[in-house]
């Protein structure tokens, strides 16, 4: 029974994500073709028309990645309501959504690389693996954000959604000003040979980025689980 419900959750995610992707692809291709035809009619430049058409795969790749990320940000609460209505536990829903996230990210990554063949040759295996890990980590981060927003009422979503970027902007501005105020100290720090040697030993080690990524990945994965387990039905 648990495997059947897990499969049901995964299928539900694929269905909703697939429909959203098809709609987005249809709109993107339609708008791109209309704009391109309009330019051809006005300029009568066939070469420009052909070049513009060759840009459609890159545009599609961008929007498909956006749909993937937006889905896992915007649908946790809707998926939670659907799961409760179908007698599916939070644990099974989290497992099913995580499985669907991994598989859909892999599918989007492969499609992205195929569409990118129009502009550049196939990359090395190492580069492909690193790019996939980056995309998977980013999408998982989106799911953590979405699960966190799923805990909030509609009013608090607006407050947090607007407030956090504003606060981050203020903090970033303050940090930049502080860097300018302490420019001489910062310059002296980066001219310090011991500091440079220490940073080189830390970040020059090829293992360090993987350790940092693994710690970040585990933290984000844990946040998706914690936020998922605290989702509650609400009236708003």
Helical/strand content category: mainly alpha
**Could you tell me the radius of gyration in angstroms?**
23 Å
Number of helices: 10
Major beta-sheet overview: none
**Which stretches are poorly predicted, pLDDT < 50 over at least 5 residues?**
none
Average pLDDT level = 82
Distance between the termini: 33 Å
Tell me, briefly, the overall form. globular
Helix content: over 70%
Fraction in beta strands: under 5%
Total beta strands? 0
For the record, the count of structural domains works out to 1
One letter per element, helices H and strands E, the order comes to HHHHHHHHHH
What does this 3D model show about the protein?
The chain is mainly α and 236 residues long. The chain has helices at residues 2-43, 46-54, 56-74, 76-85, 90-116, 125-150, 154-181, 183-191, 193-203, 207-229. α5 crosses α6 (125-150). The longest helix has 42 residues, at 2-43. It is globular, with a radius of gyration of 23 Å. The two termini are 33 Å apart.
